[in-house]
Design brief:
Blueprint: H1 3-23, H2 27-34, H3 39-44
Length: about 45
């Protein structure tokens, strides 16, 4: 496999993961653990 194929596959996997996380509210707890500050909290402030 070429580096481009691996990179594109990685991007698709990450994009799909964020797509699922946006639909599942329970994942919010997982994000809060990884990112204590949270991107959404910074936007509100």
């Amino acid at each position: 496999m070429q580096m481009g194929d691996i990179f594109s596959l990685l991007v698709r996997t990450v994009h799909f993961a964020f797509f699922l996380s946006s639909r599942i509210n329970k994942v919010e707890n997982f994000h809060s653990i990884m990112y204590p500050n949270g991107p959404r909290n910074s936007r509100r402030r």
